[in-house]
Amino acid sequence: xxxxxxxxxxxxxxxxxxxxxxxxxxxxxxxxxxxxxxxxxxxxxxxxxxxxxxxxxxxxxxxxxxxxxxxxxxxxxxxxxxxxxxxxxxxxxxxxxxxxxxxxxxxxxxxxxxxxxxxxxxxxxxxxxxxxxxxxxxxxxxxxxxxxxxxxxxxxxxxxxxxxxxxxxxxxxxxxxxxxxxxxxxxxxxxxxxxxxxxxxxxxxxxxxxxxxxxxxxxxxxxxxxxxxxxxxxxxxxxxxxxxxxxxxxxxxxxxxxxxxxxxxxxxxxxxxxxxxxxxxxxxxxxxxxxxxxxxx
Length: 297
Hints:
By secondary structure, the protein is an alpha/beta fold. The protein folds into 2 domains: 1-77, no CATH class; 87-294, SGNH hydrolase (Rossmann fold, 3-Layer(aba) Sandwich). The protein has 10 helices and 11 strands. The radius of gyration is 20 Å and the shape is globular.
């Protein structure tokens, strides 16, 4: 469902405040959990005895957001469609993108460095894999989504013209490689990446590949998973038919141990980046290269 359009002008960097009111109790069937707060902030209230009260300590639905101070829940608004002469970059990936820590700082750079005509759309899903759907035995709510190769076309190209694709995906495929040989997993992953890259090229969309981050300190670490990560990163650096490479692996790795994230850059689990780490990744992006890819003078 889409709301009626409204006429509104906003300059780059201005804050938009959107308020929604529900006339009667509504059962929520889905919502988005977000982490980063640089580009957006959400406050949810309910009406109790003639005044608004914050619901986090009242509803089980919001308990995860209460327990984790980096997290909050968004519902009621799925997105904004703006008209104008903008270019759209799609960031396609998993929780490392969905959480917003590097994308929010990247958006901030777009504004401060004069690229305000470029919009970045976050198409990350936490737990998402390139090759496999949500594991129904481990997640009753299918919150990790369909396999990346299945959702790629609709999530990237269904909402209008795309100027560039940032492909930062695959870490969950590494973590869940299981008993399969690494060579088999790598062949399947690279085939899926080739499909996504080819589909982008068919639409004249340049592709920016992003290497996978180290995760040696994660509880999910295994030598097989690390071997698959290294294999995919090698392919991205040397064989992938892409227009540009952002080597986040090199940027975020610990100088003393390349299989680990630098301590200041991760959020505590050895896998997900922090706001400091996200800022570091965004700062490493070559904006002159980006301007060339997007045809910006």
